[in-house]
Amino acid sequence: MAILGNIIKGVIDLKDTLSSEVNHQEAQKEVLKQLLTKAKDTQFGKHYKFDAILKSDDFQSNFSNLVPYFDYNKINDEWWYKLHEGETDVTWPNSPSYFALSSGTTGKTSKRIPVTDAMIEAIRQAGIKQVFALSNFDLPADFFEKEMMMLGSSTDLEERNNRLEGEISGISARNIPFWFRNYYKPGEDIAKIDDWDTRVQRIAERAKDWDIGALSGIPSWIELMLEKVIDYHKLEHIHQIWPNLQVYTSGGVAFGPYEKSFHALMGKPVTVIDTYLASEGYIATQVRPDTDAMQLNTDNGIYFEFVPFKPEYINEDGSLTQNAPSVTLQDVELEQDYVLILSTVSGAWRYIIGDTIEFTDIELAEIKITGRTKFFLNTVGSQLSVNKMDDAMKFLEEQFSTKIPEYTICAKRGDDGEFYHFWYLASEREDLNENDLSQALDTCLKDANKNYKVARSKALKGVKVKVVSPEVFYNWSGANKKKGGQVKMERVMGEDKFKDWEDFVNQS
């Protein structure tokens, strides 16, 4: 009998029973008030008169009117650079304990995003919320006695200017609660290994020693790890070595494109729970099984604003025009993509994280990630967002009986001088007809997107598809120093980056 599991499950169920429902709109007002109060004496707070904003009748509106939008380059060039020069109380009291390195999708140059002790605690509290939400998923008591595999970047952080730096997954794993360490795999020794391939090899070698009940990590890297374990032990599926695997906590990117390839590695059904942990904070987590939407963490260190995702508000580099209107949680609407704006306990203010979301339930503050501002393809009026592209990939998977876990696209002129969308799709099948794929993809996008259909009747000449091995995509990420980390594969590339990509493909 799972005695410990029953105790843990009982505590979780009791906590769920005693917890009162969060009023998300009121929680957000309180979070903003706390942020402004805490930071009013910082350099940033004095510059933007946080004290006066707090005394105003409508401090939410005054905050959005007086503080401009910041992307990473703007806030780093104007404020965060001071942290690296040893200044304190810049955008948050004192100094950050860590810097989260995030190369994102833009290249090899890492962003250095402050991570304060307050943010570490906010991430920890959001993680506890996720654990307590497991009571909604009807898991058996013995699940709570199994081990959890967390696959992220190395926990062996680098020291720079008396602060530790690393990816947010490594920072978070380094700060896991003491009571969780016995459950945590692959364990500190393996987690410290910097080279991802070596780390996964060690995991494969040790896999038979563990009783894994849950997985957590970026879908693409989790899949590669599972494939390595399966291959190393000559298995048909992962449940032959981890028979009690019941839950996969996905994060970093939308799980949809990986759904088919992930489940192909399983021997029986696994509950998939989506989470949204970024370098800037733990943004949302799925709290109930009857939806794959995630609930914003509205009462825990992050204040959210939302800008309608419309071409007139988006600059070519994915940043926002300063006149783009923002709304708070109380004014959002369904069936509308929004650019997500964060203000946090790490001293990010009205920060453009680069993701777009859509609300599925306003009262519950539940969202889905719909794409990236830089991945919005509007060449010659086609207006393709990532969620439309993801849907098209699912259509192709069904039509051609294949798995397409990765893809990328570039809009540019072909040899004939006309505009085309050039797609690269990842598939293990070598017998796929690229002309058939091109026609099916074109038809699917016309049916799903009226703007695309109009563009196809005018300046957009057509679609060209190339199929390559998924390994090419993973090696591309590895070559850009993102293997195993918080990778967001470039779904849309500019022409210069696309040329580098095609050169890489040809060399592969």
Q: Which outline best applies?
A: globular
Output mean pLDDT.
Answer: 84
Into how many domains do the coordinates divide?
A: 3
Strand order of the largest sheet: 6-3-7-8-9-10-11-15-14-13-12
User: What class would the helix/strand composition place it in?
Assistant: alpha/beta
Question: Which radius of gyration do the C-alpha atoms yield?
Answer: 23 Å
Indicate the percent of residues in helices. 25-40%
Low-confidence sequence ranges: 3-10
Total strands? 18
Strand content: 15-25%
Biggest sheet descriptor: 11 strands, mixed
**How far apart lie the N and C ends?**
53 Å
Number of helices: 17
Protein name: GH3 auxin-responsive promoter family protein
Domain GH3 middle: 298-363
GO molecular function: acid-amino acid ligase activity
GO cellular component, one term: cytoplasm
List descriptors:
acid-amino acid ligase activity; Rossmann fold; globular; GH3_M; alpha/beta; GH3 auxin-responsive promoter family protein; GH3_C; 3 domains; 508 residues; GH3; 36% helix; 4-stranded mixed beta sheet
